[in-house]
Amino acid sequence: MRAMVLDRIKNLAADTRPLKLVEMPIPAPADGEALIRVSTCGVCRTELDEIEGRTPPSQFPMTLGHQVVGYVERLGPKTSLHQIGDRVGVGWIFDSCGHCSYCQTGMQNLCAEFQATGRDAPGGYAEYMTVPERSAYPIPEALSDAEAAPLLCAGAVRYRSLRLSMLEEGQALGLTGFGASAHLVLKTVRHLYKNVRICVFSRSPSEQEFANELGADWAGDFSDPPAEPLNRIIDTTPVWKPVVEALRNLAPGGRLVINAIRKESTDKEYLLNLDYPTHLWLEKEIKSVANVTQHDISEFIKVAASVPIKPDYQIYELEEANRALLELKRGQIRGAKVLQIL
Ligand SMILES: [Zn+2]
Ligand SMILES: [Zn+2]
């Protein structure tokens, strides 16, 4: 089979073709695993982090790709969840230990042995991949292969943020940052709740306008005072100012969920504006979001199909993965980038 593999950490500024096309044997599914014939695989920013070593693969060469849609081709021993020919999706969570206290309570995302698809095990930049059957989820008919793939990462993580925010009917929700996939949260909230007011914070006037078009109740800049104190806020920015401003805007007992793998240090001094009575007093909470669980992905893909949430996408051949990655790196983004493999 053909696969696009990374054989070592690379600097994308110097090496514009980081992945190599190789021929390799089709893998055999082990106990509890399914062999998947890959149809589409989304291209994610996390792949840039893997290539440039911020989230390095645990072994080389590694086949990247963690937003995979495909068809069950073969089943290993001790499987029971899928049938040959089923259409399934695979996201960032590949496997976890299965027996620690986190795994036992549905928080596999926090397991010390968390394994990521396309980083710790070969992913979907290939014609076939194997995966533990519980990490493959049925894809509802309402979504095409190319529409479903981009939802399996960002969409599912956003959905986890929303769950962790513990938003309740009748509350006011803030969203700080409204780029790329944050609007998925707004659409999802509008679908799941009848009476939640949504305030969107963004530096960009065009993003504010976009938020209004999608039905936000209020949109403004990070330091603009919102229409009302907010019970829940989800932050998807890479910097600190929105965090400090969000804490100020939280209502008593409010919760701020930070959905970012890392924060940049460019504006770290803004944290010195933290004033205990203004930003933290009255039981305000902060929670970060790490990875995803199987439950997040399988549930979100059903919600997405029922809304429906259908991302705009741009198709590339498997061999064009390097071009897709480079365009992502350079910010040439017109919808999600999807490799069409089958
Ligand atoms: Zn575990
Ligand atoms: Zn991703």
Give a short summary of the structure:
The protein is an alpha/beta fold and 342 residues long. The protein folds into two domains: 2-143 and 310-340, Alpha-Beta Complex (Quinone Oxidoreductase, Chain A, domain 1), CATH 3.90.180.10; 157-288, Rossmann fold (3-Layer(aba) Sandwich).
Pick out its properties.
seven-stranded mixed sheet, 10 helices, 2 domains, 18 strands, 342 residues, Rossmann fold, six-stranded parallel sheet, Quinone Oxidoreductase, Chain A, domain 1
Structure commentary:
The protein has helices spanning 45-51, 101-104, 145-148, 154-165, 183-192, 205-213, 241-249, 276-280, 294-306, 321-329; strands at residues 2-6, 20-23, 33-43, 62-63, 68-75, 87-90, 93-95, 115-116, 128-132, 137-138, 172-176, 197-201, 218-220, 230-235, 250-258, 285-288, 313-317, 336-340. The longest helix is centred in the C-terminal third of the chain and has 13 residues, at 294-306. Helix 5 links the parallel strand 11 (172-176) and strand 12 (197-201). The mean pLDDT is 95. Strands 3, 5, 6, 9, 10, 17 and 18 form a 7-stranded mixed beta sheet that branches. It has 2 domains: 2-143 and 310-340, Alpha-Beta Complex (Quinone Oxidoreductase, Chain A, domain 1), CATH 3.90.180; 157-288, Rossmann fold. Helix 4 (154-165) packs across helix 9 (294-306). The chain is globular and about 60 Å long. By secondary structure, the chain is an alpha/beta fold. Residues 44, 46, 66, 92, 153 line the site of one zinc ion.
